[in-house]
Structure to design on (1080 residues):
């Protein structure tokens, strides 16, 4: 216990002697204080600063990655054959690593050539001969490093042992980096990887349905992999290199060095869109050989963290759940900014960089930001150039803030924030489970008719123009009249007087929602006059299977939904579940009414119509048709749609499908959400899009303006700290006086006190 | 004492086994391996084949508790429970279920360093400030300073820590612009990011701690030995620091020791709000991502640290109070 006394004495002595030094240090610290989250001078670099949400991406392997946040990395690192024109809408395919967007050749079942306009049913095989741009090179990576004899330095001829790997944790820890030309075989290798046994391959099922021989190839790979793993421990972390080059795939070949040939079963016009995704981007076999070596996985060295691509950027720093830094790929091919766009693009300055070489920005600096408040604040302080690069809702959110407060609107205007807005190819809808006896298909024709009228009545009263047009504007959008969002070929949304005749009508040339009285009539015909069962008199209670916990944010939306149902006297019970329970319910067909959305993979009507295609039933076949809707005519039209190229026949099919869905009402079409980005005034060339994921290469920043504005907006206010310091000193002085008074108090003074 | 520690560690091992079983049971009551697979694969177009592949890759393709297909002892050993439990007890934490390239052991070691950078200064400052503040109140007991000090304590402990965070971020980052609103950097630069969460966390806990310590000191100050010390003519500050503080250390050690596991395991709320990539944030992500491999590791480590801190507290008692004998 003597220790405490000694410590006390020491502290007292130190306190006396070090006080001035501490004061100077404190003053220096305060003088150096600012709210910038970046190192000094970072704002003057040609860098784009933004954030990511929750956690680092799990999969950056182009075969495995299939979530929206991951595309913000994969599509910068990889270079698929095709992409979308950055400015034009509806979306147009343009060549990226391919030299041209090609039309397929068609063969019949005897291998005879068919004309381009041959009926889809007669086509047995489609052949895509895709020319690959010569001279493209991969990013620098140790997997390509070779010696003078062309032998790989870090794998194959010179395999790395765990000991030789040592403490290396990034590809840039290796002394030698190399590169090589991208060839058609790399695209073939990428397609073969979808048959992998080693990692998740989320689109294998789709590809296997069309790419000739892929299903058999997967079985072969499974057998060969089993041979490779025979005798090794089950939980082995570093599995030997599975070299897909050893086995040919009939549906993907490279007849020439720069010619990729893909053979598909039948006709599948949507295949071109798949070639605009990272799933079909070239993957060098060297990457797999390199990352399959002992200790790599344990050291975090894998394609899931360190992509090996030929895209505009490459991953330079990956600190899990903290920071990702991508830098310009020095070997990126020549890629020029577009010179044509939509009306208004030139006026908006979106064509100012016509013909200039991309990417414009040297570095993408992405830091984690879990809280919305902090993210928005950093944007307002100028520290994020865009809040999140891949999320299209920030512009909508900020616009909503500006609408709520004049002061905020004035601040946003003064700071020159840009919030471009548009709808894109996604939707939110309220669906009915058609297997449900009350809202579903119905067991008898009479019951089916009654249930349909109930759904139609509900379609009228749920006022999306009010809810997601005027109330929940931060998540808002345009009320939908069909499943096909604007921006797709064949969508009639927003054109002329197009509307859903079940829910809306034309009044004085304007589309207006039908009245609640009309809905009530339908409800009475459905057997629920006034919201009560006509036979039993019991109130009609419907269940809303909400797929997550009801936080305050969702509660207001759910309350609004309850009110919509209450317009008809129908009681809506919110059955909030977590993700697991919701999945379980939908798989078992136990849900009744649900809320869901769809973000399109590609801009084709088929990517929406398949959500109601009978064989895709969620409860029967684990598909994406959560409504379990079945309609023979609709299903036939969907199959037809899959085979149709854009044209009058496709338009007619879509119109008929829309009419069927409007009549049957398995969905209340909900709304097409606004897509809005948020940019600082020093960020140029920003145009909202859900499909274009390699957007970073188009952006340009004015770093000098950023530095000036950050300094202007974030000058530290230090005088309150001086006040606080004075107050503390005052308290210490008062305390010391009180202590002294107490220590020296006489008994009489003490008693008097 | 050695035998006592061994016995306590033995009990600790049993507790760890119990915690492991309970974690396993609770986790798989709420989530099935299929649920985990579906959530982790994410995206769209998930097929049962993909789910099966995901499970097989991570060893969730076996029965959870009992394998009826297997023979002999493999009925028990060829189960998820057995395989996961044995590896855990051997301190082989394995890899994350969601991100297979994440080595949990490495991740824990890395993140624990970050959590310690936040929690260690906080722990020490908390101890010093709370003890000093409460001793000050006791020194001025029954005076206005004491009264208003207690009022301040009640006020401070009545306010949610979220309020401190939101107001603190608003005031120091947005209004005064002195510190970043959130984020983290390695090395000395970390001070800029940690200053605000440490200060706010200190404020958030000060009220409760100071009241607790004040009550302990007040209990001590009425004892005979204090009266004797005063009778010897010792000044009040000497009485407080040399005698009262020494004798009140046992409850302080108990209270501070109970906080020790959090020093290593990180703060869920502060790490989350300030974007600090420590273990607290790691747990939150694992729970939301249904990553059983991480969840069980963190629960296991939390329990182990709790057991270790209790043993340390017992040992500290013997140092503080020579009358205490561990047997």
């Amino acid at each position: 216990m003597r220790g405490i006394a000694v410590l006390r004495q020491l502290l007292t002595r130190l306190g006396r002697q070090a006080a001035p030094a501490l004061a100077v240090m404190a003053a220096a610290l305060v003088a150096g204080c600012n709210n910038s989250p970046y190192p000094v001078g970072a704002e003057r670099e040609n860098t784009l600063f933004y954030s990511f949400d929750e956690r680092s991406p799990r999969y950056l392997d182009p075969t495995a990655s299939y979530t929206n946040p991951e595309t913000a990395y994969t599509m910068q690192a990889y270079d698929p054959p095709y992409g979308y024109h950055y400015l034009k809408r509806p979306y147009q395919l343009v060549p990226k690593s391919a030299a041209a967007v090609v039309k397929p050749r068609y063969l019949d079942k005897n291998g005879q050539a068919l004309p381009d306009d041959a009926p889809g049913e007669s086509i047995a095989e489609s052949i895509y001969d895709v020319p690959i741009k010569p001279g493209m090179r991969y990013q620098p990576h140790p997997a390509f490093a070779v010696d003078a004899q062309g032998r790989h330095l870090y794998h194959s001829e010179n395999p790395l042992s765990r000991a030789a790997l040592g403490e290396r944790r990034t590809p840039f820890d290796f002394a030698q980096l190399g590169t090589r030309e991208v060839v058609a075989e790399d695209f073939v290798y990428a397609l073969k990887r979808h048959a992998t046994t080693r990692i998740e391959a989320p689109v294998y099922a789709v590809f296997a349905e069309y790419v000739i021989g892929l299903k058999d190839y997967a079985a072969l790979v499974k057998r060969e992999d089993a041979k490779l793993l025979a005798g090794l421990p089950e939980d082995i972390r570093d599995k030997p290199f599975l070299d897909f080059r050893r086995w040919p795939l009939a549906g993907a070949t490279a007849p020439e060095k720069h010619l990729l040939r893909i053979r598909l079963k039948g006709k599948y016009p949507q295949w071109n869109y798949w070639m605009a995704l990272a799933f079909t981007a070239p993957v060098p076999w060297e990457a797999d050989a390199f990352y399959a070596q002992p200790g790599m996985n344990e050291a975090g060295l894998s394609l899931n963290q360190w992509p090996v691509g030929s895209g505009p950027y490459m991953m330079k720093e990956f600190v899990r759940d903290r920071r990702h830094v991508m830098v310009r790929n020095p070997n990126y091919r020549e890629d020029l900014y577009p010179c044509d766009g939509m009306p208004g693009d030139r006026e908006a300055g979106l064509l100012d960089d016509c013909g200039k070489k991309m990417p414009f920005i040297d570095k993408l600096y992405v830091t984690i930001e879990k809280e919305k408040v902090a993210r928005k604040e950093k944007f307002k302080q100028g520290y994020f150039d865009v809040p999140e690069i891949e999320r299209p809702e920030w512009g909508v959110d900020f616009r909503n803030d500006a609408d709520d407060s004049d002061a905020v609107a004035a601040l946003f205007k003064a700071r020159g924030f840009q919030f471009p807005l548009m709808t894109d190819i996604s939707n939110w809808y309220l669906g009915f489970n058609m297997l449900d006896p009350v809202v579903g298909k119905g067991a008898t024709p009479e019951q089916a008719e009654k249930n349909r009228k109930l759904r139609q009545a509900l379609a009228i009263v749920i006022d999306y123009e009010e809810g997601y047009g005027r109330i929940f504007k931060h998540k808002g959008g345009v009320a939908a009249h069909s499943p096909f969002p604007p921006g797709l070929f064949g969508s009639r949304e927003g054109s002329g007087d197009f509307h859903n005749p079940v829910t809306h009508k034309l009044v004085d040339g304007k589309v207006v929602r039908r009245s609640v009285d009309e809905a009530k009539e339908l409800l009475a015909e459905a057997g629920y006059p006034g919201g009560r069962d006509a036979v039993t008199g019991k109130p009609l209670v419907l269940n809303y299977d909400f797929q997550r916990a009801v936080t305050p944010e969702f509660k207001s939306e759910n309350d609004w939904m309850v009110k919509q149902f209450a317009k008809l006297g129908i009681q809506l019970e919110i059955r909030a579940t977590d993700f697991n329970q919701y999945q379980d319910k939908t798989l078992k067909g136990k849900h009744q009414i649900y809320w869901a959305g769809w973000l399109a993979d590609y801009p084709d009507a088929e990517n929406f119509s398949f959500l109601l295609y009978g064989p895709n039933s969620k409860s029967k076949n684990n598909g994406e048709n959560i409504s379990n809707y079945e309609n023979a005519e609709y299903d036939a039209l969907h199959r037809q749609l899959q085979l149709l190229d854009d044209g009058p026949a496709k338009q007619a099919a879509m119109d008929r499908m829309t009419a069927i869905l409007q009549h049957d009402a398995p969905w209340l079409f909900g709304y097409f959400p606004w897509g809005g980005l948020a940019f600082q005034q020093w960020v140029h060339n920003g145009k909202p899009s859900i499909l274009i994921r390699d957007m970073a290469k188009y952006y340009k920043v004015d770093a000098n303006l950023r530095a000036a504005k950050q300094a202007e907006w974030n000058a530290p206010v230090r005088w309150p700290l001086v006040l606080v310091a004075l107050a503390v000193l005052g308290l210490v002085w008062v305390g010391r006086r009180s202590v002294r008074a107490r220590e020296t108090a006489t008994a009489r003074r003490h008693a008097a006190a | 004492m050695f035998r006592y520690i061994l016995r306590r560690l033995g009990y600790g091992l049993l507790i760890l086994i119990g915690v492991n079983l309970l974690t396993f049971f609770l986790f798989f009551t709420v989530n099935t391996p299929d649920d985990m697979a579906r959530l982790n694969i994410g995206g769209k177009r998930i097929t049962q084949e993909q789910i099966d592949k995901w499970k097989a890759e991570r060893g969730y393709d076996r029965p959870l508790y009992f394998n009826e297909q297997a023979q002999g002892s493999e009925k028990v050993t060829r189960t998820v429970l057995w395989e996961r439990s044995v590896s855990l007890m051997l301190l082989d934490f394995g890899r994350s279920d969601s991100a297979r390239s994440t080595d949990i052991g490495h991740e824990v070691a890395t993140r624990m360093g970050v959590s310690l950078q936040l929690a260690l200064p906080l722990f020490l400052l908390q101890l010093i400030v709370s003890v000093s503040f409460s001793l000050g109140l006791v020194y001025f007991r029954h005076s206005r300073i004491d009264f208003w000090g207690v009022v301040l304590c009640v006020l401070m402990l009545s306010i949610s820590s979220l309020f401190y965070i939101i107001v603190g971020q608003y005031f120091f980052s947005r209004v005064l612009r002195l510190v970043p609103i959130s984020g983290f950097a390695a090395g000395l630069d970390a001070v800029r990011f940690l200053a605000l969460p440490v200060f706010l966390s200190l404020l958030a806990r000060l009220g409760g701690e100071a009241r607790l310590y004040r009550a302990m000191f007040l209990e001590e100050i009425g004892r005979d030995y204090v009266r004797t010390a005063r009778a010897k003519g010792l000044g009040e500050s000497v009485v407080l620091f040399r005698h009262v503080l020494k004798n009140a250390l046992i409850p302080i050690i108990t209270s501070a020791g109970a906080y020790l596991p959090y020093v290593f395991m990180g703060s869920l709320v502060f790490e989350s709000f300030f974007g600090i990539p420590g273990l607290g944030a790691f747990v939150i992500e694992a729970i939301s991502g249904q990553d059983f491999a991480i969840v069980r590791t963190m629960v296991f480590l939390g329990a182990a640290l709790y057991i270790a801190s209790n043993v340390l507290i017992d040992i500290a008692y013997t140092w503080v109070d020579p009358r205490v004998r561990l047997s």
